[in-house]
User: What shape does this take?
Amino acid sequence: MTDAQTAAPTADAAVRAAEALPPRRNRVLAKLLANRMALIGGGIVLTFVLLAVFAPLIAPYDPIKTNFLAIRRPPSELYWLGTDELGRDILSRLLHGARASLAAGVFSVFISVAIGVPVGLIAGWAGGWVDAIISRITDALLACPFLILAIAFAAVLGPSLTNAMIAIGLSAVPIFVRLARGQVIAVRNEDFVEGARAVGLPGPVILARHVAPNVLPPILVQATLTIAEAIIAEASLSFLGLGQQPPSPSWGSMLNAAKNFLDQAPWMSLFPGIAICLVVLGFNLLGDGLRDALDPKEN
Amino acid sequence: MTDDTIIEAVGLEKRFGGAARSFFGKPTVVRAVDGVSFRVARGETFAIVGESGCGKSTLARLLLRLIEPSAGDVIYAGRSVTAASPSELRALRREMQIIFQDPYSSLNPRMTVGQLIAEPIALHGVARGAAVRERVAEMLRLVGLLPEHAERYPHEFSGGQRQRIGIARALASGPKLVIGDEPVSALDVSIRAQVINLLEDLKARLGLTLILVAHDLAVIRHTADRVAVMYLGEIVELAPTDGLYDTPMHPYTRALMQAIPVPRPPVEGQARTKPLLEGDPPSPANPPSGCRFHTRCPHARPRCRTERPALRSVRPGQSAACHFAEEIAAAETAAIALPPASDALRRRLALFAAAQAAPSRATSAKEAPR
Assistant: This one.
């Protein structure tokens, strides 16, 4: 009966017109802003970005200047977060290290999404031998542990932070290829994709307009998780001398140095660890919020 | 008839599979549609009925070339659809549209209703610029929705409303032929009549030709002009609707007719004269020899097992693919007639007739608010 009622222009039609929904982009933003967890996540990420950008202004000490009179000092009013094994201020190193770590996380994931998602979309959409070739290469790459792959790429490219980011990004590509491919295969058989063909839309348009938006949510979540992995991978590469070059700080290299002094100077590992956790949490919350905001079914 | 044909299927075949499943396994080929030919006249409502898995949805998709036929051809308005180039095919898509069975999966959940309906309008250049919005509003009104609904997402609507959106999208490009792939079977029974009536109304108003795929014979009876009955990828009977319902000629059609729930079920003790069909249809990957229906046919004879019956004219305008159609029909006509009504039912019917003859209060009360 509801159907029949909506057919007739009635008073509540006018009401409905009045409360007509705002344009789509504003809705996504409004929903993101209404989501408290997403706001917290965004706040954490934004804070760390600002700290990284303004590190030279905020940092109380030079992050690479050693001081042999203040080796492994516990947190005090002079050194808020203590000092490391060379007497460098941990707070200052943390602030400066945020630059390398955030960059490593964000840029490397950007690289892997930019390469992996289109390749996965094509593999899932085209099927046949295109899919077979792409999938076999992906399988081969996934068979190697992520870190080993990153080390191999970094070793080939040469030691520097930029190369470490590229190496991490390339190593994470197969994760996104496989994820995007699987999602496309699931969505490809939905009626609305066939409907788009029945309307007469060309394949690439269907892929871009009907398939890609429905494939996005799990990729978004995976991307936020991979940022965390990338930060840690950068730490490992730094440890091997393939990432951030000493004495410049990164959270990973700080952790690696600190692990030798776990019982004598726990603060050396505690604070970089907390920083990594917070950033990862922030990105995860933000990613979850973004996924929900992009889903018209969530309200 | 020939000049008036809008779409014609010529020996359409669709085989799925063919590659060996395992290294030693024999390749399995499923003949979903196996040599189907028919013509649909302009302005006609043509129904395709059959059990699940008989290939009727595959046939609908073949007609639109949403899947490529393995053999045969589809002729739309004198042009081959199968041989059409990509640009010709796009032009054809404007003329022939499909309404899907499931209104929950046939609309992209991430597009607004307006975007969904505007897509074919913009693609085929039916309208440009601001006129697109107007056309969307017009389409929404046409199917009984409000122009304001364009801003909403499909999940904000009920099943019946979604199917209306699907219809609006299908009609947006101004097609001549609309194929409904079980357009109401996913809907609540209470909504079905509305959607069917809407389709009929639109057909009359826009001069459409409808091809309805269905498994619900009750729906077909009220809408279709002609009916094709499919079994395991073949058409077993092709007849005008009245002819099919009054004198079904193929044993399978007869069985389907007997499966329709009747408003006057036989009283106790007077069981149905014929048992309903038993079992599932055989696998189309390994269809029976000869007549494909012989494994379930109550009239099967040795000849049915060896010789495949062709679709042949058995009555004026009515064809069936059965060796013994006339014989069986003659023997069974009496049996298919309804059993005589019981005394109690007769009394109730008399009461009902009396109540209908008198201008009842209930009826006038219902009319009043209009």
About this structure: The first helix of chain B runs from residue 56 to 63. The longest strand of chain B covers residues 5-17.
